[in-house]
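Example 4.3 (complexes with small molecules)
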Amino acid sequence: MASSAKKEILKTPRGTRDLFGEELLLRDKIQRLAEEISRYYGFEKIQTPHIEHTGLFEASLGQFSDIVEKQMYAFRTRGGDQLTLRPEGTAPVLRAYFEHGMQNLPQPVLLWYAGSFFRHESPQRGRWREFGQFGLEILGEEGAVADAMIIRVFGVLFKELGMEVRLELNTLGDRECRPAWRKDLVSYYRRHQRVLCKDCKRRLKENPLRLLDCKEVSCVALREKAPQMIEYVCEACKKHFRDVLEFMDVLETPYHLAPHLVRGLDYYTRTVFEFTLLLPSSSPEAEVGRVELAGGGRYDYLAHLLAGSTLAAVGGALGMDRLAEVMKEQKREGFVQTRAPEVFLVQIGEMAKRKSLALVEEFRKAHIPLLHSLAKESIRSQLTRASDLGIKFSLILGQKEVMDGTMIIRDMDSGLQEIFPLSKIIETLKARMG
Ligand code: HAM
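Answer. The structure with histidyl-adenosine monophosphate bound is encoded below.
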C-alpha cells in the first residue's frame, strides 16, 4: 500500500469524526434528558435500521429536494437492492408504523428515536456527513395539540439545558390553499428572475418553495416582498394555526412568526417550526446565518404518498452535534460534571488487582465515584497521580492487605494512614466524606 493511502486509512472520512471524552459525555447526557422528558410526555422508543430502500426517501422527501438530489448515500448491494443510508428519520418511522400495523393500536402513536443520520453535505461548522438526531413523531392525530406537544417537548429540553433559543413558526397550508400561493410565488420570482442566483433559477422550475430558503444576499432581499402563505390560508388551515399559537400562549412559550419559513423537506403541510440559537445581534453569526438546532412540522399527506392511507402526523428532530457544540462553546460543560471522584484505589500486585475488580463494583453500588489504575504502576506513581488529581482519600491494597482482609485509607492532605477491615471501608469513607 502506498504511504499516502496508508495515512488516509488512519483518518476518519471527511465529514465524520470520532466522539469520545467530554463531548460524548455531554451528548449522552443531553440524550438521557431528552429521553426522560419524552417518556414523561408519553413517547415510546423506536429504532429503525440505518439502511432503507432508496425509494422510501425518493418518494417522501421530494425528487427535487436537496437531500434526494445530492445528499443521499445511495448504493446498490451485491444482491441488486437499491439501498440508502438514512438521511432522516420521519419516513422510516412512518414505514415502521405501517409495516407493524400500528394503525391498529390506540391512536395517536407517540414515538421517539435517536441515532446517526447521513447526508453528503459540504462539511462546515455544525454540519456533518454523519450526524446525530433526536426525533419525535406523533402519528394519527390531526389536532393542534399534537403540534404543540412536539414543540413543547423540545422547548422544555432547551430550557432544562439552560439554552436560550428562538422558536419560529409558520404554516404552509394544505392542498386546498397552497396551490394559489405557489402560483403567485412563481410569478413573483419569474418577474425577478434576472437577479436570482444560479441555484434559484433552477429551483424556480423544480421546487419554487425552496426559493424562500436561499441564503444568497440577492435572493434574501427578494424574499422580503415575496407573497406569504399566511395571506392565502384556507379557513381550516387558519384555524389549525391559530390553535397552535393559542397553545403556545397557554404554555407561555414565546414564538416568532416566520412567514418565509419553508424547511428543506417537501413533506410538510400546515405547521412548520424551527428552534434556532438565540445570538446576540452583534455576533458575526447573526449575519452569516442562523444556527438551526431543531426543526419539524406536520406531514398529513406523507402516509398517503407512501402507503396510500390517510394519517395525520406531526414531528420534529433535534441536531445533537450542533447542540453539543454550542453548549461546549458556551461553556456549559458543567452540565456533564458528575460528582468528581474523591477516592483513588491504589493496588499493588496481581492479588490486589484481582480483588480490586470486585471492590470497584461495591463502590459503584454504594454510589461512591472512584478512580483506579489497572496499569502496572508503583505505589509512588499511583499516589502522585491521585494527588495531582486533587483526590481526598487513597485506598491502598497490597498483597498483605488482601491476605489480612484489610485496606489502608490515606488522607491525601495530611498524609495520615489508617488500617481498616475491608468490610468497614465503604462505611468509613462515607462517614469521612460526609
Ligand atoms: P431537518 O431539519 O433536516 O429535519 O433536521 C433536523 C435537525 O438535524 C436540524 O435542525 C439540524 O440541527 C440537524 N441536522 C440536519 N442536517 C445536519 C447535518 N448535516 N449535520 C449536523 N446536524 C444536522 C428532519 O430531518 C426531519 N425528519 C424532522 C422532522 C421529524 N420533521 C417531522 N418529523
